[in-house]
């Protein structure tokens, strides 16, 4: 899929998504859980997986979703990981049960029959990964815009921006 198509699909999905303003992560996850008709549990990714482990995992059982997020990273990165995993849910990824991989050793002694799907990623080359990454980035951008207003420029920078706007405006007409 081309990047423009991918972005348009994700922007359309974002328009349908009710992100609370001001943004509150608990409310957002609760709204998504209600939309899916099943609880979503958020947990830190257990330590000790090594360099090959994903920084986020979405695990869907028969009755609930579990999202594991790498705790040893910046708050911004944790948010992006969370949005990436939630984007997979929103986009209906992983519905193919042939992709089941209980990841032995990574998630403990989970019963493979209990786990409907586990999505853990370390690569962003597949179309689903690119789509989830795009939607996560769009969600993060919207949340950051609604959460922190743009700072006012200094008077000197405001004057430069004003001159540039007048110059560009005059150049078009």
The secondary-structure class comes to: alpha+beta
Radius of gyration: 20 Å
Count of all domains: 1
Number of contiguous helices: 5
Note the gap between the termini: 38 Å
Uncertain runs with pLDDT below 50, 5 residues or more?
A: 96-104, 113-117
| Strand order within the widest beta sheet | 1-3-2-4
Element-by-element helix/strand order: HHEEEHEHH
Number of strands: 4
Instruction: Summarize the biggest pleated sheet.
Output: 4 strands, mixed
Proportion of helical residues? 40-55%
Strand content: 5-15%
Can you give the mean pLDDT? 76
What is the molecular shape? Answer: elongated
Q: Features of this protein?
A:
elongated; alpha+beta; 4 strands; 173 residues
Write the layout of secondary structure elements.
Layout: H1 3-15, H2 25-36, E1 40-44, E2 56-61, E3 65-69, H3 75-90, E4 115-120, H4 127-147, H5 155-172
Parallel strand pairs: 1-3
Antiparallel strand pairs: 2-3, 2-4
Helix pairs in contact: 1-4, 3-4
Describe the model.
The chain is an alpha+beta fold. The protein has one domain (3-172). Helices cover 46% and strands 13% of the residues. It has 5 helices and 4 strands. The chain has helices spanning 3-15, 25-36, 75-90, 127-147, 155-172, and strands at 40-44, 56-61, 65-69, 115-120. It has a 4-stranded mixed beta sheet, with helices on one face. Helix 1 packs across helix 4 (127-147). 21% of the residues are buried. Mean pLDDT is 76; it is low at 96-104 and 113-117.
């Amino acid at each position: 899929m081309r990047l423009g198509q991918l972005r348009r699909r994700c922007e359309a999905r974002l328009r349908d998504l009710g992100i609370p303003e001001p943004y509150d992560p608990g409310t957002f996850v609760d709204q998504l859980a209600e939309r899916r008709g099943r609880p979503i549990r958020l947990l830190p990714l257990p330590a000790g997986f090594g360099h090959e482990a994903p920084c986020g995992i979405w695990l869907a059982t028969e009755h609930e979703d579990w999202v594991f997020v790498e705790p040893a990273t910046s708050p911004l990165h944790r948010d992006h990981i969370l949005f990436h995993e939630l984007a997979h849910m929103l986009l209906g990824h992983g519905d193919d049960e042939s992709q089941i991989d209980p990841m032995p050793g990574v998630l403990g002694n989970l019963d493979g029959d209990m786990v409907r799907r586990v999505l853990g990623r370390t690569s962003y080359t597949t179309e689903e990964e690119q789509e989830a990454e795009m939607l996560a980035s769009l969600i993060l951008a919207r949340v950051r815009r609604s959460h922190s207003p743009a700072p006012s420029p200094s008077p000197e920078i405001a004057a430069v921006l004003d001159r540039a706007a007048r110059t560009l405006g005059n150049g078009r007409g």
